[in-house]
Write a structure and sequence with these properties.
Order of helices and strands: HHHHHHHEEHHHHHHHHHH
Strand content: under 5%
Radius of gyration: 21 Å
Distance between the termini: 26 Å
Shape: globular
Largest sheet: 2 strands, antiparallel
Structural class: mainly alpha
Length: about 425
């Protein structure tokens, strides 16, 4: 169910990336304005409300919070289909951020209580299929809807104005959230368990304040620092790449949006299961050999191997090679991703997990999602001076950001191992 919720969230973002050129054309926007819609608009909620709101995760019933979140972002997605100008679209995208901001803290908090530490990487790997599968389905469904709806005459809706073919895609995408919201209402709320024995004052294991969470993070900064700084680097690239990926294939290789969605979606779906199997196998392999630092070690290895693929894929001489290279690089990151989230959940007290995950997502969304798309637009338009040179923005950004992230994760291996051994010595079942 959590994977299905994640698929729904990815569907919203994937459809948006496919329709960049259509939205830009019909609303008369520049690349810079589009970058605000792609990233900055959805992260404003994280900046102002997302982290404080995550305290709800540590205190209240997570099932009903998630149901409400799905409803919120589905309504906002449909509202994108009624927007007639930049600011209306911006407001609708802000609403999507409002719903999605609490989804991650909810999902990871639930999984950490559903599964014991030795099975958590496997559970998160399955959950991450929702990310990969959701991206693939978004591209396929987006391509299908674009193919069916392209060329339809505009519709005049009283009070809202003209609705174009691409706007119908957003409306239909929002409706998909209805059955997903019903599905989330069927899950059970697990009991809360705490693995970290030195986490909070006696008698206070539930609902820590944000100040207490930040103090705990500072106390264990050698563990959390590499995770958050590495995430800062990778999220800048991934959000920038995902936002402009379809535009890249259109501008560089002459593909149309439906073609980009079809083949990118098929590739994502094809890689979902191998990424899942790889994540489970490599974590189990290191754990079986007694590595207390298995999660951070797998994370560092995955991003190190992914680096050359992410640098080279936009420089390929044809679209098929570019698609294949980017697929391999993304798959390598995806099999490392469960290790990152597992590492953070295991060393974080139960009463702090929601807010810690919100801080993690704040770093990813507010920094990566807020500035990544705009960074790519600025490099392409202000530094390179030509929209057709988007490929060099992709390659240059990866050449800087991915090695930096890999070094951060390697720097975190030893502190994470020491923290895990200290938790074992204190009697925690990790």
């Amino acid at each position: 169910v959590l994977a299905a919720v994640q698929m729904c969230a990815q569907l919203n973002d994937g459809v948006m990336s496919l329709l960049v050129e259509s939205v830009k054309r019909d609303l008369g926007l520049s690349d810079l304005q589009m970058s605000y819609l792609l990233g900055f608009s959805t992260v404003l909620f994280y900046v102002f409300i997302g982290v404080p709101a995550a305290r709800l995760v540590d205190r209240h019933n997570r099932k009903w919070l998630m149901t409400g979140a799905v409803v919120a972002w589905s309504v906002a997605t449909a509202a994108c289909g009624l927007a007639q100008n930049f600011w209306q679209f911006f407001a609708a995208r802000f609403g999507i951020g409002a719903g999605e901001s609490i989804n991650g803290p909810l999902a990871y908090s639930l999984m950490a209580d559903y599964f014991p530490p030795e099975k958590l990487p496997r559970a998160i790997a399955i959950y991450n299929v929702g990310y990969t599968g959701g991206t693939g389905l978004a591209l396929l469904l987006g391509a299908l809807m674009i193919h069916i709806l392209t060329g339809l005459p505009t519709i005049e809706i009283p009070l809202f104005g003209v609705v174009r073919d691409w706007q119908l895609v957003f409306i239909l995408t929002g409706l998909i959230g209805v059955p997903v919201a019903i599905l989330t209402a069927t899950v059970a709320e697990p009991g809360r368990r705490n693995l970290v024995l030195d986490a909070a004052p006696a008698g206070k294991q539930l609902g820590a304040t944000l100040r207490e969470v930040l103090a705990y993070m500072a106390r264990h900064w050698p563990v959390y620092g590499p995770i958050f700084i590495g995430l800062f680097f990778t999220s800048l690239y991934m959000f920038g790449m995902n936002a402009w990926r379809a535009a890249f294939f259109i501008r560089t290789y002459g593909w149309d949006p439906a073609k980009v969605g079809l083949y990118s979606g098929l590739l994502n779906l094809a890689l979902a299961l191998p990424s899942l199997a790889g994540a489970i196998w490599i974590n189990d392999w290191f754990r079986a050999r007694g590595h207390a630092d298995a999660n951070m070690r797998v994370l560092a290895i995955g991003f190190s191997i992914a680096t050359p693929f992410m640098i080279l894929w936009p420089l390929m001489p044809n679209a098929w090679l570019a698609l294949a290279m980017s697929g391999v690089g993304t798959a390598l990151m995806l099999f490392a991703a469960p290790s990152l989230n597992s590492a953070m959940q295991i060393v974080t007290p139960n009463g702090m997990r929601g807010q810690m995950t919100a801080l993690y997502l704040f770093t990813m969304m507010a920094v990566g999602g807020g500035f990544g798309p705009t960074l790519f637009a600025l490099i392409t338009n202000k530094v390179l001076g030509d929209e057709a040179l988007l490929r060099y923005t992709f390659a240059g950004s990866a050449a800087v950001l991915f090695p930096a992230a890999a070094l951060c994760y390697w720097a975190g291996v030893r502190p994470y191992r020491e923290r895990m051994l200290a938790m074992r010595a204190a009697g925690a079942p990790v």
